[in-house]
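Run log // design_07
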């Protein structure tokens, strides 16, 4: 068996291969998830910054 006599070593190789496949599958399943929220978060952040700028102008009298 390819010069590897210890079954624990085979188990380690098998688990590392399976975990790599699991990571690829998870990445493919969640590829574009969350993109809808990002546009809303950007709009919210822009409005927050505008309000902050108005508050600064009001307080500093600029």
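design_07 sequence
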């Amino acid at each position: 068996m390819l010069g590897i006599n210890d079954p624990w070593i085979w188990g380690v190789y098998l688990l590392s291969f399976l975990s790599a496949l699991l990571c690829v599958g998870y990445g493919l399943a969640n590829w574009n998830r969350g993109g809808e929220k990002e546009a809303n978060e950007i709009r919210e952040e822009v409005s927050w910054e505008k309000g902050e700028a108005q508050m600064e102008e009001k307080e500093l009298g600029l």
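The chain has two helices and no strands.
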